[in-house]
Amino acid sequence: MQGFTKRYFILNFNNGTLSYFRVKDNILRGQMPIKESIISANPSSREFIIDSGMEVWHLRAINNADFKAWVDAFNSIKQEVLKRKEEEVKSIKSEVEKPLLVELQELQEKLALLKASQPSNLIDEITQDLSSIIGRSDRESPPAASNGYDERSILSSEFYDAMETFEDYGVVIIEDEGEKSVPEDEFVDNLSVSSSEEEELDLVETPRHALEAATTITESTEEEDLYPLPHDPVARDSDIPICTHSPPSIISFVRKNVGKDLSALAMPVTYNEPTTALQKYAEVIEYPELITNALTHFSDQQGEKILRVATFALSYLSAVRSKERNKRKPFTPLLGETYELVREDLGFRMISEKVFHKPPVFVHYVESEHWTLKYALSPTQKFWGKHSELTTKGTVMLTDKATGEVFTWTHPTMLVKNIIAGETYAEPSGTMTIKSTSGYKAVAEFSKGGMFSGRSEGVVVKAFDHEKKEVPYTVTGKWTESFTLKTNTTEKCIWEAGDLLPQAEKKFGFTAFAGSLNKITEMERGQLAPTDSRLRPDLQQFEKGNVDEAEELKLKLEQDQRVRRKELEDKKEDHVPKFFRFSGNGEIDEGEWEYIQGEKSYWNRRKNQDWDDLLKLW
């Protein structure tokens, strides 16, 4: 029996079914036919065992009042079944007895005639017995059931009597002498289900019953706990101030640094945009619904699932579709700097950390109810005269929690063109391959632009099965606008780029999602790790337009980092990340990084505000 997990339940009184869902999820996860099931209840532990003959559910109520409410609700369903059974029995009995009574009455009449012609004591006895049988049959016909039955207020006292046998049409109360009492602040369910836990089922449109409040369940397994989710809707502003300065001329800078790594060079703050690289790579997860939809509603029979995952992988490119976005770079995070992102509206939480300085490595770990996404990325940007080339080492890994299927891909090389003169823009080059452990893969091919054709935006994605045969479905479109899934018979848009900020050309070319990344909402206020990017003083001043103050603060933070690094070198020690550990399988900038679970995990430490051993970065 596994740990208890959070679930919502709906008891439908019309059809007598109990349905369950995960929190913040309208996808039906399982149904139990209460009418046909045997239900056992234990008042001391407030537990229910519901056995349909096909599967068994083990549930526990939050308190005694809710336990009583559920007993009453289940009994109301059972009473309706019992009433129906009684009516069926009455109908069958009537059908059987009616012709028999007719025959008995005819026999009674014949006996009367016989008695008139031939008086006899034996005939008198037979006639008397026959009359008694006919009269008793009339008296034993069950009365009609009352229609004044309130299904929500049925007393269940009869089920609290000392019952020693199972009844088909009620809740059997079990007195458990050995069960320890359970704190009343727990309401958990333990679903011993082998087949329906992760099945893809249709959405349920039945309104949730008033007893839903009694079905909120606490979470006890760490892998299911997505603290601080679920959370009430949060007011989230995405707008930022208009930028009042332009980046300096890059000509002299380029002449001195052709072929060098831009990320390793100290640059004036005016070359920056008001995000850090940790925040910039959080834009990978701007469209999480693409993942959830792909994994929970589609299969790979026609390649649709892998194509939809590929669409998610490509959607990240749209973050730089505004040409203004390509004139600047994000702030380089300090070693040990972190960034969290929790989106209650999108159903995920993310933690990221800069774990290595040279080469820079940024690790992100994203959790949702249905999947996890992790990536450790190490960017390198070099100037090549008229353009720069951004390559990103590291693999993105998406895992389906339900099936264990894993999808992997790497980011394509991005070319930033016309950095000396003309309109600066970015475009992906080459191909991008998304692989699945199922054997399927999708290959995205980017259109090649001509000498004078401007930015190339077209993408064609083809899928191949485990035998390397091309499947009939494809995805086409522009990474700057939208993607369309083409099947044998239809075409449907499956992704559209999100909104840019109003006057985006004056606000660093930010999308609305990017504009929200540096905000501190009620969810983060007073909860963030002190190393979070939102708390960087130079970034805060820069976003407000205070460039000189931002420059001074940036130089101080970088100098303090050099001092810390020198201290480690003197001690012959290495920096140890707080929330991730290197698990090998490659070089430091291409290998795998593992999120630290347990007591010292980021989210447990956040819950307990356990930040004492974190670096003081500012």
From TrEMBL:
Keywords tagged on the record: Cytoplasm, Lipid transport, Lipid-binding, Phosphoprotein, Transport
GO terms (BP aspect): endocytosis; ER to Golgi ceramide transport; exocytosis; invasive growth in response to glucose limitation; karyogamy involved in conjugation with cellular fusion; maintenance of cell polarity; piecemeal microautophagy of the nucleus; pseudohyphal growth
A single GO molecular function term of this UniProt record: sterol transfer activity
Subcellular localization, as worded in the UniProt entry: Cytoplasm
Example of a GO cellular component annotation carried by this entry: cortical endoplasmic reticulum
Principal location listed in the UniProt entry: cytoplasm
Pfam families recorded: Oxysterol_BP, PH_8
Domain PH, chain residue ranges per copy: 1-79
Keyword Manganese belongs to the record: no
Repressor found in the keyword field: no
PANTHER family, A to Z: OXYSTEROL-BINDING PROTEIN HOMOLOG 3, OXYSTEROL-BINDING PROTEIN-RELATED
Family statement drawn from the similarity comment of this UniProt entry: Belongs to the OSBP family.
Name by which UniProt lists this protein: PH domain-containing protein
